[in-house]
């Protein structure tokens, strides 16, 4: 049994398998377990409280479980899966390739920030929101000195709070969501009153320190010569400029689904996340026998949900392998998951993802890797009457750069749907291609003459 | 360039000596290559097409926007590579355009 990813889902899954006497192989890109949310630096710096805020106990618990699996499982850090086929994974570690067979595979591949393009988002000084948090958690460093936080999602307030507490000069928080939509979401958010209270605490803490928080705000442009100097935002319809050195921005998160795609798992379009997600049953089974899904890689549901989903998927793997599992535990996990799912619906309402950025000008770079601009995408779509993202890729190279569309797919899809006036669900999704992470040709060895 | 990153506190870990485009670059054990570069006010790369400066973006190994090279020509992703004592790093090989 193989687990890909050692974040909250992967760690809990591994722990569960070990408890039933199964020793899994755990593949993870990071040097230490924890995933992005509970990322550990190679050398711990500062207190856990400084690095993880209110979540420090959860972080410690995952790290302790991670240490246990490092000791007992076949744990392979600093290792990426670059291809997946039925029964076999292709791995790369520091340029050395390897293969790994599996009978049962759990994909707990996590997520990265979803950032929609705007003018100047390639300038030095623009970072993803999650990246800003990683600088603090993993390196005990602050981006800045003056930093502006913008976008959508609960992470916005948490990271702004963590920065301000650690001595960062937070200029303002620009929330895409309106006050009204967040008020409407309150009943659903009450499902996890403790988590809601933390969110409100962050907001109140920022306000009490005079850090301005704006709602119904979106980024128009990051401006500057060779680096960010000013950020222009549209707040409730009016342009407002902020002087800053760094802009940390994220429009929610996006699931890492490439491996599920390579394995031919069926995908469905998810309206709330505005993305295609691998189909899975309540226990975490994909549509492909022997392939399981858990955590944010199977749809954004947060770290607490990921822990439960990881354990539940591991129990499903054991059941399918003919090992009897604790039925009461499965039911308890299911109950807890349902409650968290209601909370997530509230979060999705409070932090609605921005729809198509129709305002994104033709000069805006959409693909960071290949520097492809919105105008080129729109022109190709119109000229060739394209309503499909893969055809747009073939004509413009969108999604073909080193990041394999991780950074541009959301923006390009929104742009194409908007420009062709078709629903986002009708333009398809970029097909996964191996290698899903860059691989030196030299790693593959000498070709036979 | 004014640095885009600063430390919350100077770590007690060992000091490492690296070079960036032939100039000395200091780091502490546990720093990534990108951290060392940003703390020193350096821009890791220029884009191949437009020659525009980039300084990383996602910091988690996904965006591929922080590739640099060793003096020997080995490419590495600065955000997910730990700094090591004696590393010789360059944005591009002498006389060559950047390769990413």
Write structural notes for this entry.
The complex is a heterodimer of chains A (449) and B (100). Chain A has 14 helices and 23 strands. Chain A has helices at residues 8-19, 48-52, 56-72, 129-139, 155-165, 179-184, 186-189, 193-208, 258-262, 303-320, 327-350, 374-383, 389-396, 409-420, and strands at residues 2-4, 25-27, 74-76, 79-85, 88-93, 96-101, 105-107, 111-113, 126-128, 141-143, 146-152, 169-175, 213-214, 217-223, 230-235, 238-243, 246-251, 253-255, 267-270, 275-278, 291-293, 365-367, 372-373. Chain A is globular and about 60 Å long. The model of chain A has no long low-confidence stretch (mean pLDDT 92). Chain B has a single domain (15-90), classed as Roll (Ubiquitin-like (UB roll)), CATH 3.10.20. In chain B, the strands form two sheets. Chain B has a five-stranded mixed beta sheet, covered by helices on one side. Chain B has a two-stranded antiparallel sheet with strand order 4-5. Chain B is globular and about 40 Å long. The two termini of chain B are 22 Å apart. The interface between A and B is large, with 52 and 42 residues. Strand 10 (141-143) of chain A pairs antiparallel with strand 1 (5-7) of chain B, so a sheet runs across the interface.
């Amino acid at each position: 049994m193989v687990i890909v990813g050692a974040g909250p889902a992967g760690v809990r899954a591994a722990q569960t398998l070990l408890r039933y006497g199964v020793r899994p192989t755990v593949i993870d890109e990071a040097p230490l377990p924890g995933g992005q949310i509970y990322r550990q630096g190679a050398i711990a710096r500062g207190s856990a409280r400084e690095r993880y805020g209110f979540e420090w106990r959860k972080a410690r618990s995952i790290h302790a479980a991670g240490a246990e699996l490092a000791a007992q499982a076949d744990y392979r850090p600093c290792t990426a899966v670059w291809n997946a086929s039925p029964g076999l994974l292709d791995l790369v570690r520091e340029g050395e390739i390897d293969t790994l067979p599996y009978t049962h595979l759990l994909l707990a591949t996590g997520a990265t920030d979803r950032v929609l393009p705007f003018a100047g988002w390639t300038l030095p000084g623009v970072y993803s929101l999650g990246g800003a948090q990683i600088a603090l958690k993993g390196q005990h460093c602050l981006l800045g000195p003056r930093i502006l936080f913008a976008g959508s999602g609960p992470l916005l307030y948490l990271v702004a709070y963590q920065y301000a507490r650690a001595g960062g000069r937070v200029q303002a928080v620009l929330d895409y969501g309106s006050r009204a939509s967040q008020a409407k979401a309150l009943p659903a958010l009450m499902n996890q009153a403790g988590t809601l209270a933390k969110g409100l605490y962050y907001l109140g803490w920022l306000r009490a320190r005079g850090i301005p928080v704006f709602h119904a705000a979106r980024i128009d442009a990051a401006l500057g010569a060779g680096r960010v100097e000013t950020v222009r935002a549209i707040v409730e319809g009016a342009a407002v400029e902020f002087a800053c050195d760094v802009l940390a921005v994220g429009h929610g998160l996006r699931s890492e689904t490439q491996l599920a795609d390579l394995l031919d798992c069926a995908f469905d379009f998810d309206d709330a996340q505005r993305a295609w997600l691998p189909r899975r049953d309540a226990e975490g089974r994909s549509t492909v026998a022997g392939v399981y899904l858990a955590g944010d890689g199977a749809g954004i549901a947060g770290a607490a949900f990921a822990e439960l989903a990881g354990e539940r998927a591991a129990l499903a793997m054991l059941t399918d392998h003919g090992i009897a599992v604790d039925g009461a535990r499965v039911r308890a996990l299911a109950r807890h998951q349902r409650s968290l799912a209601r909370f997530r619906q509230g979060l999705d309402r409070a932090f609605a993802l921005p729809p198509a950025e129709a305002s994104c000008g033709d000069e805006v770079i959409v693909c960071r890797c290949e520097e492809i601009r919105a105008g080129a995408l729109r022109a190709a779509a119109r000229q060739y009457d394209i309503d499909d993202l893969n055809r747009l890729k073939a004509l413009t190279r969108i999604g073909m750069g080193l990041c394999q569309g991780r950074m541009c797919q959301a923006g390009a899809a929104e742009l194409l749907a908007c420009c062709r006036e078709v629903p986002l669900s009708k333009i398809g999704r970029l097909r996964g291609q191996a290698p899903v992470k860059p691989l030196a040709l030299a790693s593959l060895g000498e070709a036979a003459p | 360039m004014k640095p885009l990153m600063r430390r919350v506190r100077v770590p007690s870990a060992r000091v490492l000596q690296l070079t960036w485009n032939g100039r000395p670059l200091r780091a502490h054990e546990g720093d990534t290559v990108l951290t060392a570069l940003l703390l020193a006010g350096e821009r890791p790369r220029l884009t191949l097409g437009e020659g525009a400066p980039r300084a990383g973006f996602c910091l988690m190994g996904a965006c591929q926007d922080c590739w640099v090279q060793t003096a020997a020509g080995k490419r590495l992703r600065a955000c997910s590579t730990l700094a090591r004592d004696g590393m010789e790093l360059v944005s591009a090989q002498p006389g060559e355009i950047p390769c990413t």
